[in-house]
Design goal:
Helix content: 25-40%
Strand order of the largest sheet: 1-4-3-2-5-6
Number of helices: 11
CATH architecture of the largest domain: 3-Layer(aba) Sandwich
Order of helices and strands: EHEHEHHEHHHEHEHHHEEE
Mean pLDDT: 96
Strand content: 15-25%
Shape: globular
CATH class of the largest domain: Alpha Beta
Distance between the termini: 45 Å
Largest sheet: 6 strands, parallel
Length: about 280
């Protein structure tokens, strides 16, 4: 019989719990989340459970990575349902601290890893990746995991975190996990719960356009491919492209030709609906 999952809210209790596991030679996996969990998160948790003796899932809506206060205020909060999902997936620990626990005083640390954190989301959301690095570095220091699991939907975030891990010398493995999609192709996201039925009906056009763009790219230039995907999405009433960048999958620097990098990815952000809801996705070329 599986032991009951522990819900821990303080750093002191978390460290004590994990020290006992570490002293027993157990491997520890960490899945950092902001809550409002869905099947995409569940896939990360199940992988960690399969690859580690102890899986810790953090549920913390981190204020320092939101440069738009209204975006933070309307982000879904579903702690009870989150804990039920985590328990069903086999996680041993849910770490759900308060803001005061994590930030007893302002975190003034500055992280800078250009061009990786300066383009795309970094350019559109000033301070976002600094906030990501603040909270993820804190979680790594609390948990000291052997492995940390992140969804590839946040492709740029993984690239930035890899730079931070190398910079700060954390001894852990970053494990990227594939995007989990709904049957219609829409990338699973906590923000999807904010979409109206009408908006959910048009949002799958984002990924459909990326797939069409990948096919188009076989016989067209980078620039024409970029224009094709943007035009296709913008032609859908209710969708508006904020940016579509075709970049080196490692450095995230823009590419001008398909031979500029060994691996190339297209990263997109689209506003959906009248509110509007900001959705991100990507595709490998």
């Amino acid at each position: 019989m599986r032991p009951e999952m522990k819900i821990i809210t303080t750093i002191q209790e978390l460290r004590a719990e994990l020290k006992a596991a570490r002293d027993a030679g157990k491997q520890i996996g960490l899945v950092p989340t902001m809550g409002a969990l869905h099947e995409g998160h569940a896939s990360l948790v199940r992988r960690s459970v399969a690859e580690n003796d102890v899986t810790v899932v953090s549920i913390f809506l981190n204020p320092t990575q939101f440069n738009d206060k209204s975006d933070l205020e309307r982000y879904p909060r579903t702690l009870d349902a989150d804990c039920q999902l985590l328990s069903a997936c086999g996680a041993q620990v849910a770490f759900a601290p308060s803001v005061a626990e994590v930030y007893p005083e302002p975190d003034t640390r500055q992280f800078s890893y250009p061009p990786t954190d300066a383009v795309m989301e970094g350019a559109m959301r000033p301070g976002h990746f600094n906030g990501v690095c603040q909270i993820v570095s804190k979680l790594f220091s609390y948990v000291e995991p052997d492995r940390a699991y992140f969804g590839e939907k946040d492709f740029q975030q993984i690239a930035v975190i890899r730079r931070m891990v190398a910079d700060l010398g954390f001894k852990l493995q970053i494990v990227p996990c594939p995007v989990v999609r709904e049957a219609n192709g829409l990338a699973m996201s906590s923000r999807n719960t904010l979409l109206s039925p009408e908006e959910r009906a048009i949002a799958p056009a984002i990924y459909a356009s990326l797939v069409a763009g990948r096919n188009f790219a076989r016989s067209h230039s980078v620039q024409l491919t970029r224009e094709y995907v943007e035009a296709r999405i913008n032609a859908v009433p209710g969708l508006r492209v904020e940016y579509f960048s075709i970049v080196d999958a490692d450095s995230l620097a823009d590419v001008n030709t398909w031979s500029d990098a060994l691996a190339i990815v297209g990263c997109i952000t689209v506003y959906c609906g009248s509110k509007p809801i900001r959705l991100i996705d990507h595709i490998h070329f």
